[in-house]
């Protein structure tokens, strides 16, 4: 058969003139037909085996037994039926005593005929697992309810555990239910998860989590303030307090900077327009922002780096890294230099850093620092080998040449001369050293 | 009917099976010639057909034209088994993705194909109630896949639309992703089960196993470890007992069930085997990956199926990344040679060449350039993030070497606000390998993390603690002492319950001790030739044998848990090994099915673990089939712990 154009196909397949479809060879249809044929052949067997009266068998979903979905499973298991029947029972491991097999399914109509069984908790749970008709109304005493719950927990089926809990929620007071759940961890966790999903749960952290749903920053700030009284652990209480303080200050900074930016008063905002608002950014991002736009402000202002550093107890290392990143981004090499400069009691200056200078070089390089700046910091790397390899990586010729000179390594200097451009300043420098040195 | 239960300490009663097979495949200098060829894998395409047939049936249950709303994460799985034409043939008019927004459909019949999630059902309730308020009459049907939950139906009832909406179940439990990988495509399994303690998917896992058992079984042996595995086994066993038993030749003889929380270290390691690395960087979704312009070296992205059908991929997927370049360039040279043959050809030869070889060569050329592009792109990204240094830290953590240096590395990672998930991953690895962080370190690292990535990660830390991924070392052994004291006072059953109750608090990874006992971390001073891997450690550059796979190897070799008592104790127990009761005669028949092992990961497995199992299979003449609730990796696993979004 020749396939038509897509839209033609669509017409034929979706129109009501399905009987005229030429798609007989279509895989899906053929397979479906196979399945249907299989169903039909199975149905007679099923009916023969049914020793019950004409109660209609249904599964949980209400499909009559013998439907395709049911038969799909049957077809699956009947495929490749070769070989002998084997006894293949497997042992139970470590659970409640085994339950009597109950394989018959009854439809609602059978209930009205008055054939309601007094199902035990075990039977009830089993029926629920199998998607059969069941009834929870008869579990009225607290003891019966708990027996039912414990049975559900023993069956390990979370779906059934939650179903029982929903029933208990409706038929027990909150106090009673929680008192019993305290001693039943598995059930309790199911219950908490269920409440969380239907958004009723208000446990400690979840209450705090609600701030995420508040868009308006002032409302969010006020909400965070209300969270301060919640009984957090001392550590977490500090963090929540920080969160509130942070947002409070961000709101102030944002309002101010927005105004300054639009009025065109400050060069920094003209040169580097803000890409996003600072609201709801992490502390370190806020510090970076402050080092970028508010560097040098006195620590009396909320927006100054010093104030942020103090308020949020930022470590020296962290402060340096963030500051360095921001000032390097602005190519404020003088500020970068000042970050590391310390004076000793004699007034001599010295470069110091709480993190290795090789990391500093890395950060500067990632911010496109020029070689002159880079080599200053490469020079401060203590480990000679690491210094050379960094210098080579970033082409800091002076550092390399000086290091070899200091090591009196003629051989390496000669090798390096071969690597630099003939006649360049570094070439001449090497020449000079080589000719000046004895031998 | 006999039952033989094998738990550690019991000597196996039946002497059929693994030990023998495994021994003959490894002993002696002629081992390679003795080793039998690995058996053929069963054909899993049948599973797709079953799923499709059932879906068609369900669609026909709502006769006439209808619009179909599909849950976002069901779309790719659906794509693998049916196409739009199939749906259109069954009166599906328009297709929509579930987006939790008011709908625009004009159809008078709406069908929703969804996962059984409260959120989605809530949205459907809103849709139906909005229609009601508008005085609009439509027919609604919800098809839950792979099953429905009472909680969902309860919501329909509460919202007063039970009955207005009919419900059905599409038992699409298993999606074959490749010849040897089958996925349940339930990424939420991990969080629901291990974090929330919700056992809603236990029966689903049991049913999935039951489906495999009915089609490819009967299984003769099952091994397992983990609380969830045990429950899934029970659920499966009950379903087998409830159903009819049919006789057939087994295609899969043996099953190994393992909980993800038995080994949380492995999925948190950086993947360096090709397929795993591709997943870490580009994220393989349902067996398909999207390569961006940086890979295709054009201006568009392309979607590619990554499976054994891709001949180039099939040869490199299990290779350590360092070996891939060499392989690809060799391949490229061969290709060049094949093309060059043309130069000396006469017309007739050329004609044969064009008709017989050219198409294959072109295809290979396309695949080759794709994987070369992907390799280049991955190389670039990894160089940029100082991958070498990151790996060094990871390996030190696994080895327990220079931990202080590792901590400063992690600290700086956090301080520099480099990838949040990476920082979290390193913190978790530190905690898992060190049995928790010192209180002082925990407090300081947590504070810095919150400063760098946002204070709302308080929620994340709470989750990580609950799951045991990132914990503070408890002073002394308070809990375990209390446990054992209580244990002495009450009988075993209650003690078991107590242990369960405490397990979330007292769970220790015991990684160092396990590593020593099982030789998971080879000595770092030994050379490891990645070209000729000697063990499964090659998937982590020779630095670490994945615990999960090592357990599987050991249990198969020992045909049970005997001799592994210390190990299982450190893993919090819950191990089992069971054999089908046998009526004798055919039990001793050795078939290929005995060398096919289905490994089911409850909570997800990584591509690296699959590569390790493939390696193990080649070594031992076995074939592993991996069934997993979802393919996972460190990013997916940790992202499932996040709560900091509205």
UniProtKB/TrEMBL annotation, chain A:
The superkingdom of the source organism is Eukaryota
Indicate whether Cytoplasm appears among the record's keywords. Answer: no
Keywords (alphabetical) are:
Cytoplasmic vesicle, Endosome
* Domain Vps16 C-terminal, chain residue ranges per copy: 142-204
Recorded GO cellular component terms are:
early endosome; late endosome
User: What is its subcellular localisation?
Assistant: Cytoplasmic vesicle; Early endosome; Late endosome
Please classify the protein's predominant subcellular localization into one broad category.
cytoplasm
Q: Which GO biological process annotations does it have?
A: intracellular protein transport; vacuolar transport
What InterPro entries does this protein map onto? Spe-39, Vps16_C
Which PANTHER family does the record cross-reference, listed alphabetically?
DEFECTIVE SPERMATOGENESIS PROTEIN 39 (PTHR13364), SPERMATOGENESIS-DEFECTIVE PROTEIN 39 HOMOLOG (PTHR13364:SF6)
According to UniProt, the name of this protein is Spermatogenesis-defective protein 39 homolog
> Which lineage ranks, top first, belong to the organism behind this chain?
Eukaryota, Metazoa, Chordata, Craniata, Vertebrata
Automatic annotation (TrEMBL), chain B:
Topology in membrane = Peripheral membrane protein
SUPFAM superfamilies the record matches: Sec1/munc18-like (SM) proteins
Which keywords does UniProt give here? Protein transport, Transport
Biological process terms in GO annotation:
protein transport; vesicle-mediated transport
A GO CC annotation recorded here is: lysosomal membrane
What does the UniProt entry say about where the protein is found? Late endosome membrane; Lysosome membrane
UniProt keyword Protein transport present? yes
Q: Which InterPro entries match?
A: Sec-1-like_dom1, Sec-1-like_dom3a, Sec1-like, Sec1-like_dom2, Sec1-like_sf, VPS33_dom3b
Q: Which Pfam families match?
A: Sec1
> Which family would the database say this protein is a member of?
Belongs to the STXBP/unc-18/SEC1 family.
Q: What is this protein called?
A: VPS33B late endosome and lysosome associated
């Amino acid at each position: 058969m020749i396939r038509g154009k897509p839209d033609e196909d669509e017409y034929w397949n979706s129109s009501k003139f399905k009987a005229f479809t030429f798609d007989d060879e279509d895989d899906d249809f053929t397979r479906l037909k196979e399945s249907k044929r299989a169903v039909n052949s199975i149905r007679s067997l099923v009916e023969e085996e049914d020793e019950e009266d004409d109660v209609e068998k249904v599964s949980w979903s209400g499909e009559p037994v013998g439907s395709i979905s049911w038969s799909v499973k049957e077809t699956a298991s009947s495929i490749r039926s070769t070989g002998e029947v084997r006894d293949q029972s497997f042992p139970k491991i470590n659970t409640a005593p085994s339950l009597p097999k109950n394989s018959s399914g009854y439809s609602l109509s059978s209930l009205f005929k008055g054939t309601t069984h007094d199902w035990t908790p075990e039977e009830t749970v089993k029926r629920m697992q199998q998607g059969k008709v069941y009834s929870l109304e008869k579990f009225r005493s607290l003891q019966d309810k708990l027996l039912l719950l414990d049975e559900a927990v023993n069956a390990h089926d979370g779906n059934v555990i939650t179903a029982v809990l929903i029933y208990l929620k409706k038929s027990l007071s909150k106090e009673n239910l929680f008192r019993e759940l305290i001693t039943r961890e598995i059930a309790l966790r199911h219950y908490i998860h269920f409440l969380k999903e239907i958004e009723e749960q208000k446990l400690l952290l979840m209450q705090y989590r609600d701030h995420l749903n508040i868009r308006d920053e002032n409302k969010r700030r006020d909400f965070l303030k209300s969270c301060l009284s919640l009984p957090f652990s001392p550590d977490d209480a500090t963090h929540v307090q920080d969160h509130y303080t942070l947002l409070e200050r961000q709101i102030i900074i944002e309002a101010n900077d927005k105004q300054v930016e639009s009025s065109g008063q400050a060069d920094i905002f003209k040169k580097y327009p803000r890409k996003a608002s600072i609201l709801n950014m992490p502390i370190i991002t806020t510090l970076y922002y402050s080092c970028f736009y508010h560097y040098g402000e006195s620590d009396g202002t909320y927006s100054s780096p010093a104030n942020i550093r103090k308020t949020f107890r930022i470590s020296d290392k962290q402060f340096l890294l963030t500051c360095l990143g921001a000032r390097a981004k602005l190519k404020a090499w003088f500020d970068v230099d000042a970050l590391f400069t310390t004076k000793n009691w004699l007034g001599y200056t010295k470069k110091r850093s709480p993190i290795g200078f090789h990391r500093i070089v890395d950060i500067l390089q990632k911010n496109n620092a020029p070689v002159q700046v880079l080599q200053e910091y490469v020079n401060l790397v203590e480990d000679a080998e690491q210094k050379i390899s960094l210098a080579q990586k970033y082409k800091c010729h002076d550092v390399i040449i000086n290091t070899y000179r200091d090591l009196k390594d003629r051989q390496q200097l000669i090798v390096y001369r071969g690597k630099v451009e003939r006649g360049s300043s570094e070439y001449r420098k090497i020449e000079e050293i080589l000719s000046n040195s004895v031998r | 009917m006999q039952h033989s239960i094998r738990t550690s300490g019991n000597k196996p009663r039946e002497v059929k099976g693994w030990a023998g097979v495994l021994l003959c495949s490894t002993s002696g200098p002629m081992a390679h010639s003795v080793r039998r060829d690995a058996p053929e894998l069963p054909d899993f395409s049948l599973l797709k057909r079953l799923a499709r047939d059932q879906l068609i049936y369900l669609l026909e249950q709502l006769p006439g034209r209808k619009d179909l709303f599909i849950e976002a994460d069901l779309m790719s799985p659906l794509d693998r088994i049916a196409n739009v034409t199939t749906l259109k043939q069954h009166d599906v008019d328009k297709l929509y993705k579930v987006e939790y927004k008011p709908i625009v459909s004009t159809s008078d019949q709406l069908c929703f194909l969804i996962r059984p999630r409260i959120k989605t059902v809530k949205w459907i309730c809103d849709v139906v109630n909005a229609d009601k308020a508008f005085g609009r009459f439509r027919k609604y049907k919800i098809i839950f896949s792979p099953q429905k939950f009472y909680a969902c139906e309860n919501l329909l009832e509460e919202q007063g639309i039970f009955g207005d909406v009919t419900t059905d179940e599409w038992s699409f439990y298993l999606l074959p992703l490749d010849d040897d990988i089958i996925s349940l495509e339930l990424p939420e399994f991990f969080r629901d089960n291990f974090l929330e303690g919700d056992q809603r998917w236990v029966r689903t896992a049991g049913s999935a196993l039951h489906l495999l058992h009915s089609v490819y079984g009967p299984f003769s042996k099952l091994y397992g470890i983990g609380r969830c595995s045990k429950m899934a086994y029970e659920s499966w066993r009950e379903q087998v007992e409830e159903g009819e038993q049919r006789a057939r030749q087994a295609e899969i003889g043996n099953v190994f069930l393992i909980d993800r929380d038995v080994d949380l270290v492995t999925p948190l390691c950086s993947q360096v085997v090709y397929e795993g690395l591709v997943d870490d960087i580009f994220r393989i979704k349902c067996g398909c990956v999207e390569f961006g312009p940086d890979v295709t070296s054009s201006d568009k992205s392309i979607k590619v199926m990554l499976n054994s059908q891709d001949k180039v991929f099939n040869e490199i997927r299990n290779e350590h990344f360092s070996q891939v370049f060499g392989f690809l360039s060799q391949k490229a040279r061969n290709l060049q040679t094949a093309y060059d043959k043309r130069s000396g050809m006469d017309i007739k030869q050329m004609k044969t060449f064009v008709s017989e070889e050219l198409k294959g060569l072109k295809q290979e050329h396309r695949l080759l350039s794709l994987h070369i592009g992907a390799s280049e792109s991955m190389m670039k990204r990894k160089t940029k993030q100082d991958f070498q240094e990151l790996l060094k830290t990871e390996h030190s953590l696994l080895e327990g070497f220079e931990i202080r240096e590792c901590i400063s590395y992690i600290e700086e990672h956090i301080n520099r606000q480099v990838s949040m998930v990476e920082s979290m991953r390193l913190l978790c690895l530190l905690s898992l390998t060190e049995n928790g962080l010192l209180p002082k370190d925990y407090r300081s690292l947590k504070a810095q993390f919150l400063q760098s990535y946002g204070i709302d990660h308080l929620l994340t830390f709470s989750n990580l603690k609950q799951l045991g991924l990132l914990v503070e070392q408890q002073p002394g052994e308070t809990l375990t002492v209390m446990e054992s004291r209580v244990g002495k006072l009450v009988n075993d059953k209650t003690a078991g319950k107590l242990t369960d109750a405490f397990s979330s608090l007292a769970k220790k990874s015991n990684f160092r001790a396990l590593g020593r006992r099982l030789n998971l971390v080879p000595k770092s001073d030994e050379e490891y030739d990645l070209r000729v891997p000697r063990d499964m450690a090659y998937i982590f550059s020779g630095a670490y044998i994945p615990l999960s796979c090592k357990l599987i190897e050991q249990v198969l070799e020992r045909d049970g848990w005997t001799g592994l008592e210390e190990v299982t104790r450190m893993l919090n127990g819950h191990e089992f090994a069971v054999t089908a009761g046998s009526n004798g005669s055919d039990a001793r028949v050795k078939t290929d099915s005995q060398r096919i092992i289905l490994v089911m990961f409850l909570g997800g497995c990584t591509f690296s673990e699959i590569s390790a199992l493939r390696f193990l299979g080649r070594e031992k003449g076995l074939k592993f089939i991996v069934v997993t609730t979802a393919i996972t990796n460190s990013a997916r696993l940790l992202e499932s712990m996040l709560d900091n979004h509205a």
